[in-house]
Amino acid sequence: MSECVEEQQTRHYRGRWHGFGPVQDDEQLIFAVFDRTARNDDSLMPECFKQLSGSSESVGRARYVTRQVFDSKIAQPGMQAKGALIGIAIANTRSIRGLRTDITINHRTASYRSICVTDHVEAGDYDGHATMGYAEPIEALGQTLKGKKRMAVRMDLANQFSKIKVVQSHSWPARVAVLGGRLLSIVREASKTLNWSRST
Known about the structure:
- By secondary structure, the chain is of the alpha+beta class.
- 34% of the residues lie in helices and 26% in strands.
- The chain has helices at 67-82, 93-97, 136-139, 143-160, 175-199; strands at 11-12, 28-34, 39-40, 43-44, 57-61, 85-92, 100-105, 108-113, 115-121, 129-134.
- It has a six-stranded mixed sheet with strand order 1-9-10-5-2-6. A two-stranded antiparallel sheet has the order 3-4. It has a two-stranded antiparallel ribbon with strand order 7-8.
- A hairpin with a 7-residue loop joins strand 9 and strand 10 (129-134).
- 34% of the residues are buried.
């Protein structure tokens, strides 16, 4: 049973040479919190992750999202649909990818990835956009068991995010740092192409 194959390559609508490439394990993810986001005081609640099915829960890649991009591409559209901006919560990609779920198939129980984190940029998105979604083993379950597993996964995921903090307290990257990340992604893709050519 495959787990998160889509993480291995960019899903930028303009192709692999655009954006910042696949999300790296050492990246941090930004979850914007609005007035109508499910939360308990300064913590996220599992119910706030409503778009995990279909791998469409939006997060920002902190390394590549400047304050200007956050305000124009995340905060302003979000406020129109979800009310006033409350703040942000941060999580580490490696920790999210490390979440596991035990699934029994044909009387055999195995541990599988719970959440996939994918570089996913569609027309109109900002280049530092990514999505989270349930891993395929969970989506392949029957409806009753799937519902139970999804709830457990959402609880685990909520625990991975930091306490909600005000936007001003976050260390937003400078534009030059984001440009450096863009150049590095091009180098990584060129290296992959070169290695592939050598192996054929």
